[in-house]
Write a structure and sequence with these properties.
There is one protein chain. This protein is mostly beta strands. Helices cover 0% and strands 38% of the residues. The N and C termini lie close together (10 Å).
Length: 79
């Protein structure tokens, strides 16, 4: 997995902590730990799956809020 982090411009810093780009060439499983922040995500290619997701795949974009438990997701090859 390749992870790149970028800092937002000064105007956005009160609202955005960091921009992250995650790339998974070979596919992998990721355990996302609970946090007290919100997350906005955009999937540019590939597929991200979660067993509890009715359709199987995460949507192209989504917003997630605070969680009480860990979330396990699977990044398919070339995501």
């Amino acid at each position: 997995m390749k992870i790149q982090r970028f800092q937002p411009v000064d105007l956005l810093r009160p609202f955005i902590e960091t921009f992250m780009i995650l790339e998974s060439e070979g596919g992998l499983q990721n355990n996302i730990l609970p946090d007290t922040t919100m997350t906005m995500a955009f999937r540019l290619r590939g597929a991200i799956t979660h067993p509890a997701q009715p359709a199987g795949n995460f949507p192209i974009s989504f917003i997630a809020g605070m969680r009480k438990s860990a979330l396990t997701v699977n990044y398919e090859k070339d995501t």
